[in-house]
Amino acid sequence: MIAGSTDAKIMVRRCLVTFKPFRIFVVGIGFFSLCFLMTSLGGQFSAKRLGDSPFTIRTEVLGGVESRGVLRKISDMLEVILKRMDSLSKLDNTSTTDARRLDELSSAINRFQPASLVERIQAIAQNVSNMAIRVEQILQNSMVQGRVLRDGSSSQCEVPRDPRFPECPGKVDWMRARWTSDPCYAFYGVDGSDCSFLIYLSEVEWFCPPLAWRNHSSPPTQHTQPAKSPKRQAAFRTDLSVLLDQVGTGKESLSFMKRRIRRLAQQWATAANRLDAKLEQQWRDQKKILVHVGFLTEESGDVFSPKVLKGGPLGEMVQWADILTALHVLGHNLKISMSVKELQGFLGVPPGRGSCPLTGPLPFDLIYTDYHGLQQIKQHMGLSLKKHKCHIRVIDTFGTEPAYNHEEYATLHGYRTNWGYWNLNARQYMTMFPHTPDNSFMGFVSEELNETEKRSIQQNKVNNMAVVYGKEASMWKLQQGKESFLQILHKYMEVHGTVYYETQRPPEVPAFVKNHGLLPQHELQQLLRKAKLFIGFGFPYEGPAPLEAIANGCIFLQPKFNPPHSSLNHEFFRGKPTSREVFSQHPYAEQYIGRPHVMTVDYNNSVEFDSAIKEIMRTKVEPYLPYEYTCEGMLERVHAYIQHQDFCAPEPPFIPANLSRKGSAGGSRMMGPLFVPLPNTTALGWASNVTAPSAWPPLSSLRLLVSQEGQSCVDACQSAGFICEPAHFRFINNKEALRRLDVQCEVVDSEINHILPAFSVVRQECGLQREPLLFSCAGHSPKYRRLCPCRDFRHGQVALCRDCL
Asked: Signal peptide location in the record (predicted)?
């Protein structure tokens, strides 16, 4: 052991012991800086001598910004010196010269004797940098000259030049320069020597070949195939008390979510029993699931929680509460994270800044998060994210289209935004409404009424009562024609609002509006049960409130957008990873529910608006809730996703020539068409006599269509009464599909473009997709007609095909 190193360490650690009880008071000055000053001024300050003045020095003499900056730099340098001394203290063969140099270092601090305190600070600052360099030189020399690692000598640690590991030399060079940049490297045993670099790069990462002299009983981390634990069957749960405890406390957002879970508890229990009976005891794998709600973490800023009781948006919290409940009720093993610290603990990531991979298998089958959480996961999983991202599901309200998701393509073709670009399978993004078929539709639930409640609502409706959709006063600003249509509404109906205010009535709300203030959920529900009309001002977009109003017997009136709103012309959508055009405030309500429950009109046309109000007053409707927004509908959908969606299993290339006819002897090669005409439609379907590859949704649901020029597959499928199914693209991305659709191709190219597969009628050019991540229902081009893989769907459940359960 080295005496000089020990003495120097003792000196620095003495500072630690002396001032540890008072560290909370040392606000603007580095703690090691304070220790350094103490020693240089005589080394006599003690924790027992409160009359002495290290803290007085801090407040009276060192209060300037410049002094604090100098001391912060000194502190950083001393931290480095201490780390180096820790390393040196472990060496057994340091030369006499090195020991003598360390003796000089251990006494160097006491040699500072300038006349005044400011001069002393300056002298310290001038010398600490030199000291740090000298310690680094001694450490490096000691290791080069004589250190022998636990498992080998320096001769065994020459950097290999192996063509199978071409990146190894470069990675070793990087480690030499930057191994101290993240504490995780030291956590894995890296200590600055080439041997430790090679051990790390071959056993924790995968850039270098395994070292012959190492014990290789366990393969490198990244290639380890964990032993699969035995499958457990998931059982439906109706008791939500465990879930409520897991959600936690301390934020109004969490309190809101827990109130919602409690209020809907009986409906979830009833839905679980119904779905259990429908599945007829079907085996369901129990999954280990992590839910990390990134937007509610302090690290993301959490702007939502403080606004819960002030009229802020609640849609995201509604959806997350329902996701948590659905996963719990379906019987899965659930962990919930609301902070980065909890996330780190659940993932088991090494300490540091995320530069190192996980040492073992991912402890979860699935991770549900949002874009904020995804960024946090990336920061802490580091290199492991690439391997494990197939397990991630991103809750994404407005959707992410494939052109924005593919990082390189988005960057080269102008689709790069602050979101997107994660190179996920687009179905890993899960939306609030089924507006982006490239993504999966997660949804949420609305409260379902029984027959008695429905009759009561119809009997007690007030025919001339309207409630305005808008809890924030800013939504009521009389611009863009609001004043004129509000006056028309007031002519026929009593107008009610639920606008948040603290002491005074918001001036934006007209005097004729009866404002109830922000209402608790059950009181808002009672108001909606009396009202005939729920009217939107055009914002917020695609929220849960219109569905709740329709479920309580209201007619929803909303504005038509002309031109449609999108990321190209509207600030709200700008930067979102989608080119989707929104033709009304709530496209789902317009498209999937429609009249008489939903009316979409031009608010700038006073005649049309006036006529709509009169029609609403004479129209009688029953409370209506689409099945997919009931508790049972959501459970059914989430169950199907969990049991059938697998983005980790590699998809084998689809080669039509390798298929066989059903019932053929010895599985003879397919003869005849792969796609055949279907009755009562222009679409083609999968030939019933051809063995279909394993797929979900199953190929029995496939409906192959051709779009018009400039038309997306979303619109082409929708106009034929189907849904675009991105999972089926790989089965139609071939010449066989082109032939069966009678497409004339002089040239068939394979390219990377989000509108492919497609063809040009004029040029008789056909293109197939080369990049599976760019299979896109949303893509369209005025010059091309697209091959579109549509599918059928279950009544009231557009996310699932008829055979999907």
From this structure: none
Sheet of 333-337, strand order: 333-337, 288-292, 366-369, 392-395, 429-431, 440-441
Long-range contacts of 590-595, Cβ-Cβ distance < 8 Å, separation of 24 or more: 590/558, 592/434, 592/626, 592/798, 593/550, 593/624, 593/626
Mean pLDDT on 64-81: 52
Predicted confidence (pLDDT) at residue 107 exceeds the cutoff of 80 = no
| 52 has pLDDT over 50 | no
Taking the CA of residue 542 as centre, how many other CA atoms within 13 Å lie in the half-sphere pointing to its CB? 24
Half-sphere exposure of 371 (CA within 13 A, CB side): 16
Cβ neighbourhood burial of 782 (10 Å; 0-12, 13-18, 19+): exposed
Q: Report yes or no: 8 and 102 within 8 Å, Cβ to Cβ.
A: yes
Tally of CB atoms within 10 A around 575: 11
CA distance 488 to 612: 11
Rg (alpha carbons) of the chain, rounded to whole number: 33
119-138: burial string, b at 16+ Cβ within 10 Å, e else: ebbeebbebbeebbebbeeb
Contact between residue 125 and residue 74 where contact means Cβ atoms under 8 Å apart: yes
Residue pair 387/423 in contact (Cβ under 8 Å)? The answer is no
pLDDT at residue 124, rounded to an integer: 67
Q: How far apart are the first and last CA of the chain?
A: 69
What local confidence, expressed as pLDDT, does residue 126 receive?
Answer: 59
- Residue 559, both tokens: 């504005």
For 552, list phi and psi in degrees, rounded to 5: -100, 20
Nearest-angstrom CA–CA distance, 536 and 184: 52
Contact 578, 398 (CB under 8 A): yes
Maximum pairwise Cα distance, the chain = 102
Using CA atoms of 180, 181, 183, 189 in order, give the dihedral in degrees to the nearest 10.
-40
The confidence score (pLDDT) of residue 7 equals 46
Q: Which DSSP symbol is given to 481?
A: T
C-alpha–C-alpha distance, residues 669 and 225, integer Å? 35
* Alpha carbon distances (Å) from 184 to 78, 200, 343, 358, 587: 21, 11, 17, 10, 48
Query: Which residue in the block uniquely carries the two structure tokens 């004589």?
Result: 146
pLDDT in tens, 444-478: 999 999 999 999 999 999 999 999 999 998 888 86
User: Distance between CA atoms of 321 and 209, rounded to whole angstroms?
Assistant: 48
What backbone torsions phi and psi does residue 380 show, to the nearest 5 degrees?
-105, -20
Residue 708: how many other CB atoms lie within 10 Å: 12
pLDDT for residue 716 is more than 80 = yes
According to DSSP, the β-strands at 429-431 and 440-441 are parallel
Residue 338 and residue 248 in contact, taking contact as beta carbons nearer than 8 Å? yes
- The H-or-E segment that residue 205 falls in is none
In this model, does residue 35 exceed pLDDT 50?
no
The count of C-alpha atoms lying within 13 angstroms of the C-alpha of 237, restricted to the half-sphere facing its C-beta, is 19
Reported as a single tens digit per residue, the pLDDT across 374-410 is 999 999 888 789 889 999 999 999 999 999 999 999 9
Chain mean position to CA 630: 25
More confident residue, 213 or 94: 213
